[in-house]
Design goal:
Blueprint (H helix, E strand, L loop, with lengths): L1 H4 L3 H27 L8 H27 L4 H8 L1 H9 L14 H6 L4 H12 L18 H7 L14 E2 L5 H4 L7 H14 L16 H7 L3 E2 L7 E2 L5 H4 L7 H14 L5 H6 L5 H7 L3 E2 L2
Parallel strand pairs: 1-2, 3-4
Helix pairs in contact: 4-5
């Protein structure tokens, strides 16, 4: 029996280690319960996210409120927001009706009549490009002018009496007077006057048609309203310099030089035959020029 319970030194050591490990395993849950550390959580970022979401919600709520308020705006209010400058003029300039000529009234005067700024600008551009109002109905063609406003303006529109025959003296009329003719604007009237002055005057009504840029269709319309008169200036063929001669529309620089050379070698021109002898012009070219030549 003693031998049965007898353990060697090595066996006793193994048993001791085994009992120690078993004790540790048994006590481990209790030790962990006392030493457990609760983890700490940082809520700073979470709080920031919540605050940002709240701000966005408030912004969306304000935007929806503004949209609801805007939907209640009347058409006139929308017009004020769309055309602030136009409304500013309308509010600062009292509207009043008075007699006016749409061909000459300033943009400010047109706006005083109640014509919107953008429409008065259109009228001004139309006039600058040579457009004219010959009848009251012509104003209706302006884009943007409302019919109700046009009806109010009709009694105050003043235009030249078209029943009175209008005749333009081709050699005396100013550029402004030429513009009274339908189809003749500032550009064309300026060209007509410039061409006439270089010529020394128009010999005939048909000569007006030679103006650069003047459409034949326009000339045919105004032809009956033109009247002729004597030319204002002649060519001093025996005294003018080369520079003066070549300024005339019917004399180029080469022809002017030939005339000067002929005068130097043969003396003054005494008539049409001498001009032909100089060979400066062909006969048909000279025929256009003869009415302007002064042989004194």
């Amino acid at each position: 029996m003693k031998d049965f319970f007898y353990f060697t030194k090595k066996e006793r050591r193994g048993i001791a280690i085994l009992l120690g490990l078993s004790s540790i395993l048994l006590l481990l849950p209790y030790l962990l319960a006392f030493t457990k550390v609760e983890p700490t959580i940082d809520f700073t970022e979470v709080n920031k996210a919540i605050a940002l979401m709240k701000v966005r919600q408030d912004s969306i709520r304000d935007s929806l409120s503004q949209i609801r308020d805007t939907s209640k705006v009347t058409w006139e209010d929308k017009s004020f927001k769309t055309y602030p400058k136009q409304q500013e003029v309308a509010l600062s300039t009292p509207r009043k009706l008075f007699a006016f000529n749409p061909n000459t009234a300033s943009k400010a005067e047109l706006q005083q009549l109640g014509i919107p700024a953008r429409v008065s600008h259109t009228i001004d551009n139309y006039r600058k490009k040579g457009g004219k109002f010959f009848r009251k109905e012509d104003l209706k063609k302006i884009y943007g002018l409302q019919e109700t406003l046009y009806q109010k303006l009709i009694p105050f529109i003043q235009l030249p009496d078209n029943k009175t025959p209008l005749h333009i003296d081709i050699n005396k009329a100013t550029a402004e007077e030429w513009q009274q003719l339908r189809g003749i604007g500032p550009s064309l009237s300026g060209r007509i006057v410039k061409f006439r002055d270089k010529l020394g005057g128009f010999i005939s009504i048909e000569q007006v048609a030679q103006t650069y840029g003047l459409p034949d269709s326009t000339f045919q319309k105004i032809k009956s309203k033109l009247k002729a008169s004597p030319i204002q200036k002649t060519i001093q063929i025996n005294s003018w310099s080369k520079e003066e001669l070549q300024q005339h529309p019917y004399i180029n620089w080469k022809q002017a030089q030939i005339l000067i050379n002929y005068r130097k070698h043969h003396g003054k021109f005494d008539g049409q035959e001498a001009i032909l002898q100089s060979k400066a012009f062909k006969k048909e070219e000279l025929n256009k020029l003869l009415a302007y030549l002064n042989f004194d």
